[in-house]
Amino acid sequence: MRGTSASRLLLAAALLGSLLFGGGVPAFADGAPHINEGPYHLRIGTGPEAGLYHAYGVALAKNLDSSYQGARPLVDLEVLETEASVDNLERLRAGRVGAAIVQSDVAFDAARTEPDLPVRAVAALFPEHLHVVVRRDLGIRTVGQLRGRRIAVGGVKSGTRYTAVQVLRAHGLGPETCTLLDVRGDRLAKALERGEIDAAMFVGPVPLAPVAKLLEKPGLTLLPLDPERLRTLPSEGAALAVDAIAAGSYPGQKAAVPTASVRALLLVAPDVPDLVVAELIVNVAREAARKRLQLVHRAFGRYGLHELARQLPLPLHPGALSYYRESQVYRLPVRVYTSLYLLAVSNLDIKNGSYTMDFYLWFRWKGRLGEKDDELAFEVINGQIERAELQAVERYGGWTYLAYRVVANMRGNFPLHRYPFDHQVLAIQIEPPDYGSTELEFVPDDHHLDGSPRDLRKEALHPGLTISDWRIEDVRQRAYPFLYPTDFGSPYEATQGRTPYSRYVFELELGRVLVPYVVKSILPLTIIVAMSFVVFFIDPREFEVQAGIVITALLSCVAFHISQADALPEVGYLVTADKFFLVSYLVIFFALVEVVLENHFFHSRGREAAQRIDRWARVLFPLGFVVPVAYIFFSQA
């Protein structure tokens, strides 16, 4: 790595000088020694030329140039125009750029799928909110009503499109149910005016100029998101927050609009010299640098030094870690390896969103953690601990090991859009109340002490674990820093910044067994509908009998639907099971229409004409029921 050894020495010298002779941010930018080879050329991926990521890159480059007041700068930053976050991360991973600006949710999901991602975090730059602009004349009030609509979401490799797809999926939609378009700038405004598109999604800091310009038109408004749906996203809490666009942020916006927020991150390749990384931080964090950035957008200089290092979804670059630690902002936390062994799941109640879990939970760490090493306080965030008993305390080879037997009553949010083809996740979320993520970091205990991988399907579940009407699809565990969207009224957190906490999450994914539903629901429903088809075989003269049978079938279907709905929580959307009943209602209703039409033909055209209608109905009506029901069933199953 070019200049690495020299860079580390220069970094240490500069930090020591700042701590001895200055205060606050270590003073690299004014008078810091240069890398021997001259300015370090660094290519940074930003976004489209008209976008804010590109504007930030240009402003950062100017900060780097102006820091030395005519002297040779330490870093020569080349700002590249790209398609934004997804494109930037791909370029950084491939080594085509040395730095990139990337949305936090994009980085988080990439790190989840690729644990050895060759990318390091430097700082969080500024917050960004998801804006959903819709036409008022369409009467759209919820994201679910965007089904089948045309939505502008930006470029294929943009962070806006990435976040939009994730949020749509959380609301039961996606590219397969909506038409996603790349329409921007003046074309977007005109397309909305002409009704060529129905909605547009933007990710950016508030206020966002394109959104403000659109909302000046009376025919457009901001659409709120469902916070509960957002909380089902894997990145929620770690890289995506349930947030709101404050009232008055845009023309005509009288109330706060619930939405999601992410953060723009500065990421670099692992081989970028430490001193270069420190120089980047200086030109983001120093007061003068922040003021220059705010001239471009007021959100650009919002984060102080403490907030730059908080809740980053990727490992810090060594240069950034050294910088933050020497600035007394960041210290290396104790890594606590955590996992559990699930003994039983009971009292699973989808309607009330509750279940009980019985499990062994263990913590293992090396070194000292606080004053007491014989216990570790923990909370179950999504439930209430009924019983927690310390089972073992061991110390061996510098390791401390604690094991607990825990019984907890859990709460869950169970989306039922695809019921009875739904998959549900039973989660256990653990946090340490006494330590922030700068002191304690949970790490999933995915490996044995000899380094071999742990098979969670075999080693985290009791062999006799079964859940009635459900099958176990997957077992996974993860950990991430979680930042609460409040200071809890704490004067310290209000002034010094909110404290993130390390959160360990164990997830048991379940798939519903379909056989009981078919026997208890589909079969009776089919019999009720088939009962209505009997009228096609009854003599046309028996109109009262025919009508009575069809009406009885219709009422039976309604009553059966109500009884089925009682087993589910009250939700403001159709579940897949409702579609079976809607098909049944339509078929039975048209059977009633057929009976009336047949009676009319019998009296006006004779018996033969009426029986001809019956013969056609005997074929068409069963097909009209079986085909859509089979399509719904097999497309979901």
Describe the structure.
With 637 residues, the chain is α+β, with helices and mostly antiparallel strands. The chain folds into three domains: 108-327, D-Maltodextrin-Binding Protein, domain 2 (3-Layer(aba) Sandwich); 334-512, Acetylcholine Binding Protein, Chain: A; 515-635, Methane Monooxygenase Hydroxylase, Chain G, domain 1 (Up-down Bundle), CATH 1.20.58. The protein contains 18 helices and 19 strands. The strands form three sheets. Strands 1, 2, 3, 4, 5, 6, 7, 8, 9 and 10 form a ten-stranded mixed β-sheet that branches. A five-stranded mixed β-sheet has the order 14-15-12-11-17, with no helix packed on it. α15 (514-533) runs antiparallel to α16 (543-565). The longest helix has 30 residues, at 607-636. It starts with a helix and ends with a helix.
Share of helical residues: 25-40%
Number of domains: 3
How large is the radius of gyration? 30 Å
Q: Sheet bearing the most strands, described?
A: 10 strands, mixed
**pLDDT averaged over residues:** 87
Question: N- to C-terminal separation?
Answer: 52 Å
CATH class annotation of the largest domain: Alpha Beta
Measured by DSSP, the beta-strand proportion falls in 25-35%
Q: Given the helix and strand composition, which structural class is it?
A: alpha+beta
CATH architectural grouping of the largest domain = 3-Layer(aba) Sandwich
> What's the name of the CATH homologous superfamily of the largest domain?
Periplasmic binding protein-like II
**The CATH topology of the largest domain is what?**
D-Maltodextrin-Binding Protein, domain 2
Uncertain runs: 1-35
What's the shape?
globular
Tell me the total number of β-strands: 19
Number of helices: 18
